[in-house]
Write a structure and sequence with these properties.
The chain has two helices and four strands. It is α+β, with helices and mostly antiparallel strands and 126 residues long.
């Protein structure tokens, strides 16, 4: 898995890059189908804007893409919020993708048990 860090209106220092990689790499522990993560950090230079530091992420997986965006007053705070949000969305995506397979298996097993119970009740009635 590759983590790419880009910046708009900001110079990406080694400290920020290391912090992003530390926070975002924890997401890979939850789902092994992640192929790449692209993080874009930007600063809004308008003095009237409230959330001046923006962090965006695109998480590419084998079966889809997750996009997240967070704004805060400091860059580190926006990265923290972004990492938490991405973590929740990856867990949700994983549960949905694995849940559909599990549901189909359960339905087949459940249908098989119903048929067995009907056969058993018919033989008992005879």
């Amino acid at each position: 898995m590759h983590i790419y860090v880009n910046g708009r209106n900001i110079e990406i220092t080694d400290a920020i890059k290391a912090y992003v990689k530390e926070k975002i790499s924890k997401v890979a522990n939850h789902y092994d189908q992640i192929t790449g993560i692209e993080v874009v950090l930007s600063v809004i230079k308008n003095p009237a804007a409230s959330g001046k530091h923006v962090a965006e992420v695109s998480c590419k997986m084998s079966s889809g893409i997750i996009h997240c965006k967070e704004e805060a007053d400091s860059m580190y705070e926006s990265i923290d919020l972004l990492a938490d949000k991405l973590d929740r969305q990856v867990k949700k995506f994983k549960d949905k993708s694995l849940g559909s397979v599990r549901n189909s298996i359960r339905k087949e097993d459940y249908a098989g048990k119903d048929e067995e119970q009907q056969e058993n009740s018919e033989t008992e009635d005879s």
